[in-house]
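# step 3/5: fold
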Amino acid sequence: VKALILESVDKVSSGNGQVAEAGETMTQIVANNDEMTSLVKEISNASQEQSIGLAEINQAISSMDEMIQRNVALVADTSAASETLRQQAAELRDMVATFKLH
């Protein structure tokens, strides 16, 4: 009986050690989980900031595209006006050529 009691005490003691070890492991798991949660939040915040930055870049590119389109239209208008002036200058030159100086 004494041997059984001693064996039971040893098993209980061993079980207590295993429970303590399991408790420490769980504490580490919780700490690691908290750290992972913090890292995921940081990644989420960084991703959100990048998304905002990309939206701003997209808006800037859209604004530049609009300005480029306006510039293209202005260049076309300027080109047409230059051609008109060239034609008028040629006509004026032809008209002046008909006059003779005495």
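# step 4/5: annotate
The chain has a mean pLDDT of 94.
# step 5/5: archive (pending)
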